[in-house]
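Pair request: fold both.
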Amino acid sequence: MSAVKELIRTEQNGTISFGDYTLDVKAKLQDYEFEGDLYKVKTYRDITKLERNGMFVYESVPGTAVNEFAAADTGVSFTVEGGQDAQITLGLSDDCEYDVKIGSEDAGVMKTNRSGKLTLSVELSEGAQAAVEITKR
C-alpha cells in the first residue's frame, strides 16, 4: 500500500482509495464521481480530508493514504497508512454507538456526537498500515 498519487481512485472491488501524505504542498481534486455522488479530496503531509456531496466524510491529522474505503449505513471500513500516528475523524450517523476495531485490536464502543462525528487515534509508522472497521450497534 502507498500514497494515492492520483489523489482519489475507484478500486475494482467497488471501494475508493484517496490521500497522499507524502506531498509537501496541499493538493485537491473535486467533482470525482463515484456511485452517483461527487467527492472532493484535499491532501498533503499535514491533513487529508474527504467530502461527499459537500458533506464531511473523513479527516486525518496528519495526512494519510486511505485504501478500500467502504461506507454504508451499517458502518465504515478501510485501510490507512501514514508517516506517523494519526487522529482520524469520520462523519457517521448522529448520536449513535459504534463498535471499533483497529488492526486486530478491539478498541471498544464509541459514540458519535450530535453532529455524527467519531474521532479515533491510529498508531502508524512509515510503510505500516492499519485496518479500521467501524460497525453501527
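--- second member of the pair ---
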Amino acid sequence: MAANIYEFNVTDIDHTPHSLSEFKDQVLLIVNTASQCGLTPQYEGLEELHKRFNSQGFSVLGFPCDQFLHQEPAEEPEIKEFCNTQYNISFPLFSKVSVNGEKTNPMYAYLKQQAPGILNSQKIKWNFTKFLVNRQGQVIRRYAPVIKPSRIANDIQKLLT
C-alpha cells in the first residue's frame, strides 16, 4: 500500500500522464465528478474553493466518473468543454475513472482505504464524494456527496495554516 497520495500516477483530461507528486506539499480536495448529476452545480463551489485557496498551496482535483446512473456519458473532450463553458473551471481535471468495482482506479482504492465511509464502507456511494488530503499526502477526511464545497472551507483553511 502506498505511503501517501503522491505515489500515484494519473492521466489528465487531455490524456497526458502525471505523477501526483507534482502536487507535493499542497492541500488537495479530490472529487469524483459528473456533468449530468443533480449535484453537478457543485462544480461552482469547487471552483470557488480552488480560486480562494490556490495561492496558499491548495488544489481541487476533479476525476470524472460514469459509475452512477451513467451521469458522465461524455468523452474527455466534451467533459472538458462542459466544465470550461458552464463553470469556467481552472482546477485540474483528469481522465474518467472507476471508483468502485473490479476496475477501481488505484488512487481511489487508496483513498477509500484511508478514509472509509459510513459503517467503515469502502464503497463510494455517489458522484461528488470528496477526499481532503494534507500537505504530507495523507487523507484527512472523506465528505459525503451532499456536503457542499463551501462547508469544507474551514477544514481546508486549518490545513493551510
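Observation on the second member. The longest strand covers residues 27-33.
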